[in-house]
């Protein structure tokens, strides 16, 4: 998304049994937004962060993996005396060869996963750095196998929290992309921690997931004889518990990011797109503007919705209506087709408020001349003139430049979760899930991506690395070719200047896993 300083930011050492989870990326003003407000006393420099600022501690990772009740988010004690924990250093995902170093920027070389370390389901992955928008690639990726076990409330977790034993545990698979902005720290924490949050939240409801119908009481106790009927009337199924676990996991991860950012005086946030295969269903959770689609033999199934200030205008305006002090007298909640001018005062102009999907006319008052809460169109739309996304993780310290107005109250960390049930679909060999950050979707539509997918797989049926090569092909297509000082698509339109990250996940391979 945006630039970053060269201060390395790396990963805590992997635990036994834990598999590959990607690491994160670098900071900067954010996705085409107004510059972020610097922390007091910090020289952020052109990259948005001081090259000499202390790196984020690795204590959070060990702290919450240990799982002691007093160390949970919201009640974590300050680290005791002793040597400081090792720093989390900037690196690319662990499954990318040479992940500790950034790829040379000049030719924007496409990087993929190491063939000798296959990803779950034989998935393909590829990435490319931006065209000098920022100093580092700010996209991050993670994937792993998650095993869920029944755990009594209050019981401390074992150190080995990923135990791969399919006979005693429910096993799922996880892939995720994080697109950082305003700094690398939120994406680093999310790429290391979100899958753990998901595992933890699934374990809290596993007793209901394994039942034909989730019980009213998790313990199985029946206070009222008609409890099962009430649950049935609400149409509550096991899949609803998984969706709830994902929503809770995103919220907990956001809280952890906020605590760590405050403790280390860092800023920034990230979008999050996660796919979880669990109990025969595929769950795709999205908070931000990344996208996932299923490319099937005869159809395209969107598995996510992008959340921008435009798409969530009414929710954002309603918050401003309920809590006008959040705007601090600097913004108007109303939307107008353009910025109003002094000559508009006293005249009726087109407008929209929080309760309106359509448009109306209102008489312009002097207060309406303030900057709109949501302004711009498409990729230029901004929340409070600052952010181009309305959902994501982090951004707890973000303020509108030169004001004391906090952006976080208008943001949501809760994802929209879409579910795909394999039991009611006949999955073919070339059916895949495509997950990508907005760097791909800015220049390629769903139909174009699906055409590339189908053509490539049909022409490379015997290549054992075809899904990895397809991921690289998609990244190359969106990156384009350099002509002079510009990056151009084959049709001579401007290519993507953003970081681009892509997962290609073959659905048919789940049977072989």
Automatic annotation (TrEMBL):
GO annotation, cellular component aspect: mitochondrion
Domain PPM-type phosphatase: 122-507
Pfam families on file: PP2C
Ranges of compositional bias, category Pro residues: 76-87
MF term (GO), any: [pyruvate dehydrogenase (acetyl-transferring)]-phosphatase activity
Composition bias, Low complexity: 1-10, 106-115
Membrane-spanning intervals of the chain: none
Disordered: region residues: 1-115
Source domain of life: Eukaryota
CDD domains: PP2Cc
InterPro entries tied to this protein: PP2C, PPM-type-like_dom_sf, PPM-type_phosphatase-like_dom
Name used for this protein in its record: Protein phosphatase, Mg2+/Mn2+ dependent 1M
Organism: Junco hyemalis (Dark-eyed junco)
